[in-house]
Every structure is written in C-alpha cells, then in structure tokens.
From TrEMBL:
Species classification: Bacteria, Bacillati, Actinomycetota, Actinomycetes, Propionibacteriales
Signal sequence, renumbered to the chain: none
Membrane topology summary: Multi-pass membrane protein
Organism: Kribbella qitaiheensis
GO molecular function annotations of the record: metal ion binding; oxidoreductase activity
Biological or metabolic pathway of the protein: Porphyrin-containing compound metabolism
Protein name: Heme A synthase
Keywords, in A-Z order: Cell membrane, Disulfide bond, Heme biosynthesis, Iron, Membrane, Metal-binding, Oxidoreductase, Transmembrane, Transmembrane helix
Length: 289
C-alpha cells in the first residue's frame, strides 16, 4: 500500500473529530432519556449477557447503542493512529498526538464503566464526558500541525487572546458538567446529584460564558486591526458566532425548564466549540518579528 499523504492524515483526523462529537451526542441522549443504567453493569450489559434483552426495554437499547458507537470511535482512532505511524517522513509530534487520542478511547470506556458500577456518580459522569473534548482537542491539534506551509507571524496580543479563549472555553465546558451534575437530567431517576445549588452554579457558568464572549470579541477585533492570516481571522469569527449560538441555546434551555432536545443541541455545540477554539489556538502562529 502507498504511504499516506498529509491529506489522508487530515481526512482521518476529521473522521475522528466527527465520531467523537457524535458520541458526545449519543452519550447525552443516554443521560437525557434516563437510560444511564439501561445496561445495569459493565463491561457486559447484564450479569448474564453482553447484549440487552427485552426486559430492559428502550433504555437498554439506547445505552447499548452508545456502547457500540464507542467501538466505532475506537476503530477510527486506531486507523488514524496507523495512518500517522505510516506517514513519511516520520513526524514525532503527529505520532504523539495520535497516540494520546487513541489511548483516550479505552480510558473513556473504563471511566464509563466505573460510572455505571457506581450508579452514575455525577462526578464520574462528568469525567466520562470530558474525555471526548480532550480527544477532539488532540485530534484537531494533530490536523493543524499537519500543515505544509509555515505558521504565520502573529502579534503577541492575538496570541494572548487566542490562549485566553482556550482557557475560557475549557472552564465553561468544565463548569457546564458541574451544572449538569446539579440539574435534573441525571441519567436515572435513582441517581443522586452533586449537591451544588443549580441556580448558583448556573450563574457562575453564565459569568464565565460572558467573559469568554468578551475575550473572543477582543480576538476578532485584534485579528482585523493587526497583521494576521485570513485563516485566523475567519476562525475567530466562526468561534464568536458559535459562542453566540451556544449561549442562546443555553439561556433558552435554562428559562424553558431544560427540555432535553435543547440540552442535546447544547452538548453538540460544546463539541463543535472545542474543535473551533483548538483550531484558533493552532492557527495563532509565531510571535511577530
């Protein structure tokens, strides 16, 4: 077989990003439909079978489907890793990122199993979710590093704002999992919550989002008044648009009683937001000389 090109590496990277955003959505569907214990044990579905039976109903089917998608995500991660390993000339940076992303799949499966065995402890469920954004970050970083053209020189203010956006997005996403752990969508009616006041933690989450919007607006302005690449200007604009859309969905779901469809859309946008801010950070370039 011919050695893969960087275009092939990027295509497999895209497949991995899409798959990981998809499992964020299906994992959210598991929780939002109360199917978190549809398969009451792990790694098998029940003590007698690895697959659900009729007595488990729709909840068992939903949970098992999410587990099967995990295998698909794992296969894509392995194939991406193999493509990167076969690429010549050897790229140590790409290999490290692909390896870390591939290792994230079994880690996520183990944390998911622990969450089931602990009756959906909200903190463990949060950790289970956060593995997907980490894998998305690693994979997008790998794709950005696979570029053949040199990184553009970028003013320090743009680099600092891009870094601040990454920190703010991750803080917002992490706090979002805490909000979820305090809210009504636990994944199972018998599951306890994390003990935080939902109103207080939601306000803190919103405050971070407002800060993120301010930093991103600053980034958009900075990329237009300084010498930056067109790619970075476009990515910054897309990042701001996604934050506004995500914020709109977040406020709407909060004031309408958290309908599960809007919560699911909010989770999907969170995956896209992580990918976008990672791309922005990867395009920030080098200091201007």
């Amino acid at each position: 077989m011919p050695e893969p090109s960087l275009d092939v590496v990027r295509r497999w990277g895209w497949a991995s990003v899409v798959a990981n955003i998809a499992i964020v959505v299906t994992g959210g569907l598991v929780r939002l439909t109360g199917s978190g214990l549809g398969c009451p044990t792990w790694p098998s579905c029940t003590d007698e079978s690895y697959v659900p039976h009729g007595a488990l109903g729709i909840h068992g089917a939903i949970e098992f489907t999410n587990r099967m998608l995990g295998f698909v995500v794992g296969v894509i991660a392995i194939l991406t890793w193999l493509v990167v390993m076969r690429y010549r000339p050897r790229r140590t940076d790409l290999r490290r990122l692909a390896t870390a992303a591939a290792l994230g799949i079994p880690l996520q499966a183990i944390i998911g199993g622990v969450s089931v065995l602990t009756g959906l402890n909200p903190w463990i469920v949060s950790g289970h979710f956060l593995v997907s954004p980490i894998i998305i970050t690693l994979t997008v970083s790998m794709m950005r590093r696979s570029r053949t053209s040199p990184y553009p020189h970028t003013p320090p203010v743009v680099r600092a704002l891009a870094t601040a956006c990454v920190v703010a997005v991750w803080l917002a996403v992490a706090l979002g999992t805490v909000v979820t752990g305090a809210g009504p969508h636990s994944g199972d009616p018998q599951t306890g919550r994390n003990g935080f006041d939902p109103t207080v933690i939601s306000q803190l989450h919103a405050d971070v989002v407002f800060g993120l919007l301010g930093v991103t607006i600053g980034l958009v302005i900075a990329t237009r008044v300084t010498a930056t690449s067109r790619a970075l200007r476009n990515l910054a604009a897309w990042l701001l648009a996604m934050e506004l859309l995500q914020g709109g969905v977040g406020f709407t779901q909060y004031f309408t009683g958290l309908p599960w469809v809007l919560v699911l859309i909010h989770m999907f946008f969170a995956g896209v937001l992580i990918a976008l801010v990672t791309a922005v950070y990867g395009e920030r370039g080098t200091p201007a000389t």
